[in-house]
Design goal:
- The structure is a single chain.
- 40% of the residues lie in helices and 20% in strands.
- By secondary structure, the protein is of the alpha/beta class.
- It folds into two domains: 3-43, no CATH class; 53-282, 3-Layer(aba) Sandwich (Rossmann fold).
- Helix 1 runs antiparallel to helix 2 (19-30).
- Residues 72-281 form the Dienelactone hydrolase domain.
- It holds the Pfam family DLH.
């Protein structure tokens, strides 16, 4: 697919551009409204087309924990019958806790961790089925309260009796930016992994104590513009970090429900690197 169309969709999903304006621009790039309507399903996430991750080795349940202004909803997944588990908080994209991120949470658990997929939209009633509505609601969250709700999620994991007290986080897109913010704001965090997420403010980098792993798509000009200044600050402050840029792939390359942006090779490599970091830093025990 034409990279201009993919970039247009990326702009649409990360801004307040209306669907009407997006479709008008898409029709211009496609050559007609009819062709735009044909292309649209290839751009939008298709949860039904993606394989649902399931294994008998994990247990999955809905949980809540105390947030700033009420209960935060989340999905908890963990290996059956295991204790002393390293813990991972999973942070969704800018449309809420959708089926793809629930699958990611289960995949983290299958690797031997206690995984918590938090619904940031809990204060606004939870993640809606309409992705455009979810994107609108994300923009209505109070940034400071949202940050505190995630910090409380990390504390919830630290206090779990089936965990070992060591906690990391992994976030995607909007969640990747939040992973960087958590690294800045939680000095007890052991590891933070950000997939194509906005970088933390350079002035805040000295606060980071966690080991960072940052995954970027080579074609993601919007997010990648912030890499040089961030990396320089990480180096100057002697932060433990690794940056990986995957050539020829787009923003959201890990999302297997996004057919035009998903890149299987890059996704598998980034995932293996992510899990290796968590195994190193969170001291997973299987007894």
């Amino acid at each position: 697919m034409d990279q201009k169309i993919i970039s247009l969709y990326d702009e649409y999903t990360h801004s307040q551009v209306s669907r009407k304006d997006f479709m008008r621009k898409l029709a211009v790039l496609a050559g007609s409204t009819a062709l735009a309507m044909t292309i649209l399903p290839m751009l939008e996430n298709n949860y039904a087309a993606a394989a649902d991750f399931n294994t008998d080795d994990i247990e999955v349940k809905d949980v809540t924990y105390a947030g700033v202004d009420g209960e935060m909803k989340a999905v908890l997944a963990k290996p059956k019958g295991k204790k002393n588990l390293g813990c991972v908080l999973v942070i969704h994209e800018n449309r809420g806790l959708n089926p793809h991120i629930i699958d990611v949470t289960k995949r983290v658990a299958a690797e031997g961790f206690l995984a918590l997929g938090v619904d940031a939209l809990s204060p606004l009633g939870g993640t809606p089925t309409d992705e455009d509505k979810g994107r609108e609601l994300i923009g209505k969250l109070d940034p400071e309260k949202n940050l505190q709700n995630y910090l409380k999620g990390l504390e919830y994991l630290r206090n779990r009796k089936d965990g070992n007290g060591k906690v990391g986080c992994v976030g995607f897109c909007w969640g990747g930016g939040m992973a960087n913010k958590l690294a800045v704001n939680d000095p007890k965090l052991q590891a933070a992994v950000a997939y194509y997420g906005a970088q933390a403010n350079v002035a805040d980098v000295p606060k980071i104590k966690a080991s960072l792993m940052l995954h970027y798509g080579g074609l993601d000009e919007r997010i990648n513009a912030g890499i040089p200044a961030y990396e320089q600050a990480l180096k100057e402050n002697k932060i433990d970090y690794k940056i990986y840029i995957y050539d020829g792939v787009n923003h959201a390359f890990n999302n297997n429900t996004s057919p035009t942006r998903y890149n299987e090779a890059a996704a598998k490599l980034a995932w293996s690197r992510t899990i290796d970091l968590f195994k190193q830093k969170l001291a997973v025990l299987t007894r």
